[in-house]
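Why does residue order matter? Because the sequence determines the fold. Keep that principle in mind as you read this record.
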Amino acid sequence: MALGAKRSKEGTQVLRFGFPKGSLESMTAQLFERAGYRMQFPERSLFPSIDDKEIECVLIRAQEMARYVEQGVLDAGITGHDWIVGPNADVRELAELRYSKTSFVPTRWVLAVPEDSTIRGVKDLEGKRIATEAVELTNAWLAKHGVSANVEFSWGATEVKPPLLADAIVEVTETGSSLRANKLRIVDEMLESTPRLIANKSAYENPWKRRKLDRIALMLSGAIAAQGKVGLLLNCPKDRLPKILALLPSLSSPTVSPLADGRMVALNTIIDERRARDLIPDLVDAGATGIVEFPITKIVA
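Structure:
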């Protein structure tokens, strides 16, 4: 059951927001910073501060987030797609935020076994022991394939359990490096997961909370879209414009503006940051001048 509407000391409404504690915590904090929010995480406190008096943050494990949002204890929060579909949580997804604990790529839940295991596919798991933190997710995946296995909850250090304590594991990974270091090989991919901004369905029906959440979703999505992008400003003679435009990639089309002297134009565009070091010398060779590269924190289409 949803709790009653909370108001701040100033009498304004307050959005109860669940912030993921654990592996997603650092990257989520960075995302909020790029979206324009300033946060602090006091030691030994589960209540981060944020420079928005209309938001009250609480640190919650991502695995529990969807349950508290579904029940209305929290109005909204951020958790992985895996922790929504695993318990089949009845929440509203407002935005997909493509990042993980160390990068901006999705995580994968994979089935892994020792390098010398005879297990080659999901059917080979019949009657086997599987260790994982994602018990519900794994059971649903096995049921879909018509396989019956003994799935046990793992409290951590899952990679070291085969072959003595388990025949196989289902573990989350970004690159697979930890699995390889423990002499495990990936047999199958169970689910790709990205963090999601979720809301309690009743809370989202409240006009004030809907507007607040939509604005948060817009800014977080804009910060994700800007990741790895930079802006370029440059000038060039009009007769060099076609050659310059042919070199410039862009999200849409570069903005071209005439300069006061009538002979030059200014261009403004967005590019992948990794291309800048090769592109800028090419632009100079093509006649561009006054080139300025600048960081971008948000792109709102």
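Residues 89 and 211 are 23 Å apart (CA to CA).
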